[in-house]
Structures are given as structure tokens and as C-alpha cells.
Write the C-alpha cells for this entry.
Amino acid sequence: MSPRSARLARLSRSVTFSACHRLHSKSLSDEENLKLFGKCNNPNGHGHNYKVIVTVRGEIDPVSGMVMNLTDLKEYMQEAIMEPLDHKNLDKDVPYFSEVVSTTENVAVFIWDSLQKLLPQGILYKVEVHETEQNVVVYKGEETIVK
């Protein structure tokens, strides 16, 4: 057999969690928050059933045939997503959101950062957070856009 070049693949796994939050920025007045966030600024909050799809990328191991073991990915997602976020009030139960507005964009960043601490370096490709069927955020670890 002749040597083959490495084959790259992307592997995705999804989970669903339920959480509530209130879109409210401490940097804005109550009136400005209401104008910006509308009904999502309800003082009592509101909830979502979030769907998260995590995609990893890497070489297909010639022995195992896998980019990574799905059981390991499932455990990492349990620790990084389900344990801190499922059935929680994001603003009150998750310390990260005490100073960061709990938008879906920031939920995606939180999940990315949490997974980065657990996964093998360089394997995390994408975090996709579905707040509703219509609202989806994709985060690939980009921190800023140079202007």
C-alpha cells in the first residue's frame, strides 16, 4: 500500500439545555435597556430551550478511524455546557454572566472558552448556539475584527 496523506474531518455533536435570562446591561439606564432589548428585558426574565452543536476538526486517526472519541466529546460537553448552564438562571447562577450580558453571542463565547479548557489543543472548530429555531449564533473563536 502506498502512503496516503492525512484525511481531515469535522465531527459534530449536539446537546439541548434549558435556561432563563434577562437581557440587561449595567452600562445602560433602565429606559435604554428597555428600548434596546424590548420584551427580553423583562425584570423576571424569560427562558429558552437552547440547542448547542459543537464541532471539532482534526485528522482521522488511521488506527481508530476517528477524529476523537464521541464518548470523550460527550463528557467534555457535559462538563462545559450541561453542568454550568442547564436549568439555570444564567444571570444569577453563572458567575461569568454577572458582568457580561447573557446574549446568545456571549453564551457561545462562554461555551467556547469552557470547552477550550477541556479539549485537546487546536481541535475545537465551531460552537453553534440555537436560541430559537430562527436565531442562531456561530462562534469560531475569533476575538476581534481589526478595523
Q: What stands out?
A: Residues 8-139 form a domain with the Tetrahydropterin Synthase; Chain A fold (CATH 3.30.479.10). The first strand starts at residue 8 and ends at 21.
